[in-house]
Amino acid sequence: MKSVLFSRFFILLPWMLIVIIMLDVDTRRPAPPLTPRPYFSPYAGGRGGARLPLRRGGPGRGREQLNESRPPPPPLPPEPPLPTIYAITPTYSRPVQKAELTRLANTFRQVAQLHWILVEDAAARSELVSRFLARAGLPSTHLHVPTPRRYKRPGLPRATEQRNAGLAWLRQRHGHQRAQPGVLFFADDDNTYSLELFQEMRTTRKVSVWPVGLVGGRRYERPLVENGKVVGWYTGWRADRPFAIDMAGFAVSLQVILSNPKAVFKRRGSQPGMQESDFLKQITTVEELEPKASNCTKVLVWHTRTEKVNLANEPKYHLDTVTIEV
């Protein structure tokens, strides 16, 4: 039995050696490099419906080559300049003057592209207002013109000469050059203004209007609007006025001011409370007015006025040892 097994082993031994040698040689042979196979998309067809191979670089490479072949987009047109708001503020010497101007300046600092025209009712510029404007950090113009004594009686219109001085400065500055877009607003120093009001008035094309709070013996006065047009006035005093509106209730385009060089606030023949109507009649009509503030349904300016100061205890002889500007 053993002899039979040994005889079969020796018969198979050469074949086993041959298999081992072949396997050893095959493992030592270098592997051939792998070649990428083209990828055929089922959605890309050539002529006759033949499939076209797509590169495996991903969709980004195709977009980059496509963008390189396209011309660059044209540059965007420059934005139109922001219209300048010119705020004319008449002011006069009184105990609360600096307090009023401080509140107004704090509002104006938050309004872009605003130029403050401050006009003193005085024969010369006061040191108080000059120092105040120098520290205010606002684009400003400091003017002065006194009100004639005969017009300082109670019941007569006030600040006429000061508003006209501001109008004259605007016309002189822009009269000999092409005026940039602008809006004129009469900003008395005893009012309170919402920042939203300046956004509303900046788009004025000719003359825009809006409500005013705490005026005329009422909580507010306003233009009455129907279908986007002013048709009347909600007011507590003389509703028969052509423009029954407060000085703080309208703005005028700078171009309108320059196109009407004779439009000013009148002294002769003007009655108290009629200054607004006398001025607006020279430049527009009620039908042309532009309602702002949600068709004149929002109050964005208030005729607050500072309370009259009580100085009964102010000393006349034993004064403080230092001088303090108030």
UniProtKB/TrEMBL annotation:
Active site residues according to the UniProt entry: 276 (proton donor/acceptor)
Region (Disordered): 34-82
Cross-referenced Gene3D superfamilies: Spore Coat Polysaccharide Biosynthesis Protein SpsA, Chain A
Keywords annotated in UniProt: Glycoprotein, Golgi apparatus, Manganese, Membrane, Metal-binding, Signal-anchor, Transferase, Transmembrane, Transmembrane helix
Known cofactor(s): Mn(2+)
Matches recorded under PANTHER family: GALACTOSYLGALACTOSYLXYLOSYLPROTEIN 3-BETA-GLUCURONOSYLTRANSFERASE 2, GALACTOSYLGALACTOSYLXYLOSYLPROTEIN 3-BETA-GLUCURONOSYLTRANSFERASE BETA-1,3-GLUCURONYLTRANSFERASE
Family: Belongs to the glycosyltransferase 43 family.
Protein name: Galactosylgalactosylxylosylprotein 3-beta-glucuronosyltransferase
Source taxonomy: Eukaryota, Metazoa, Chordata, Craniata, Vertebrata
Gene name of the record: B3GAT2
